[in-house]
Amino acid sequence: MTSLAREIARWARARFDEPLPGGIARKVQLHILDATSIAMAARVEEIGEQILRAATISGGEGPARVLGGIGGKSTSGLAPTAAAFANAGLIHALDFDDIHDGARLHPTAVVLPAVLAVADLIGSDDSERLSRAVAVGSEVMCRMGELTEPAGTGAGSGWFLTQLYGYVGASIAAGLMLFLNEDELVSAIGVATMQAAGARQAAYGAGSTARSVYPAFAAEGGVRAALLAREGFVGPEEGLEGEAGLFPLYLGHQLDAAQTRRLVDDSSAWSFLATDVKRWPCCRLSHTYVAAAIDLRAQLGDSRPERIIIDVNRSANRLCQPAGPRRRPSTLVDAKYSIPFMVAFTLERGAPTLDSLTVDVLKNLEILATADRIEVRETGIDNAGHPEAVVTVESEGRTLTSSIDTLAPMSESAIRDKIALCVARALENTRDLIENGPVPLT
């Protein structure tokens, strides 16, 4: 009986060996540009400095480039695993990277850094080959996430699926870029499952900044798995479906025949098509609530909200509890993950941007006072994808309600505007670093 890893390896190699359809090729290139620009913007932030210092110390110098450079270091790059970690951390650090809503994972933040690292290792500048590797690795991640149908409870709810499935997606993408044959690719997938992790307490709790780098572990692990396979290391062939494989251990069940077919179906449309570029730099589950708050802010005009009620489902309620730290977050990472804080911020300041949503807002008295007026009710039906956001505001005898259950994808023009803004912010902050020195680490 053919193992699941071998079926995936055969499917991945077949997809990789063919030119990408025009729509997918253009979309992948746009997402690569988006991710790169975000990494550049994150590079000059305090959290970017922390990521790069740790990656440099732990990985050492090497041929793999870091997006945005390494600052004052004399070297031009890092070891491949360290560069993969650094770039993935930078892409995700600002909570601005792309996401597949139904799968609840961020594919490009994991797969692109893995492919870039091994491309630099082998000295490849083949952009078409790189795009195909990113597309196929991302597609595997998206399909695995879709099969899980993640919600607030049940299979997958306790794991960062970006990280858990990212080990597999990154190992495949890096392996394809390294010219691995079928057996070597199967071994890379097996080694990837041996590293699989992604406990989600960093998101459920408060006070940690670690949620900003979880994709980096998968990018690093995927590169390591592919390199081990290239050197002849043989991984467990049934690392996905075996008795102690990824699916039974982490999700509590095997894939049935129908799910397996969906995972390696050549006739299926590309799941990556459903991956969206983020419009605002905050947790995707809060985006419908931000949109509702933008609508209500326009309706309120000069009036002040006296009472605010947020109706949520189980998934969205994860971003509202524990109540105290969500209303008064201690870190910017927590603020971006908090629905109450993001609603309060948007009612006071408007749509969040990299320039407006900074660490200074954590002590803004008006935003905090508005956040304290928020009541949360778990009334909605839980589901994969966007939660339906219902926000009600009482002010001066009026009751205003905004309900939003879906968001239109960003247009290509809007995505290019976002890319330009991220690059401009990076360049502006780089000039500040040169003139005033690096951001102090705390």
Give a topology summary.
Blueprint lengths: L3 H13 L5 H22 L2 H14 L1 E4 L15 H14 L5 E2 L6 H16 L4 H22 L12 H17 L4 H14 L5 H4 L9 H17 L15 H6 L5 H7 L11 E2 L10 H14 L6 E6 L1 H4 L5 H5 L4 H6 L1 H11 L15 H8 L1 E5 L10 E7 L2 E7 L7 H25 L6
Parallel strand pairs: 4-5
Antiparallel strand pairs: 2-3, 4-6, 6-7
Number of domains: 2
Number of E-state strands: 7
Number of distinct helices: 19
Largest sheet: 4 strands, mixed
CATH topology of the largest domain: 2-methylcitrate dehydratase PrpD
Low-confidence regions:
71-75, 436-442
The largest beta-sheet arranges its strands as 5-4-6-7
In percent, how helical is the residue content?
40-55%
CATH architectural name of the largest domain: Orthogonal Bundle
Assign the CATH class of the largest domain: Mainly Alpha
The percent range for strand residues is: 5-15%
Rg from Cα? 22 Å
How confident overall, as mean pLDDT?
93
How does the helix and strand content classify structurally? alpha+beta
What is the molecular shape?
globular
Element pattern in H and E: HHHEHEHHHHHHHHEHEHHHHHEEEH
Distance, first to last CA: 54 Å
User: Which superfamily, in CATH terms, is the homologous superfamily of the largest domain?
Assistant: 2-methylcitrate dehydratase PrpD
Note down, in words, how this protein is organized.
By secondary structure, the chain is of the alpha+beta class. The chain folds into 2 domains: 273 residues, 2-methylcitrate dehydratase PrpD, CATH 1.10.4100; 121 residues, 60s Ribosomal Protein L30, Chain: A, CATH 3.30.1330. Helix content is 54%, strand content 7%. The strands form 2 sheets. Strands 5-4-6-7 form a 4-stranded mixed β-sheet. A two-stranded antiparallel ribbon has the order 2-3. Strand 6 and strand 7 form a beta hairpin. Helix 1 packs antiparallel against helix 6 and helix 6 runs antiparallel to helix 7. The termini are far apart.
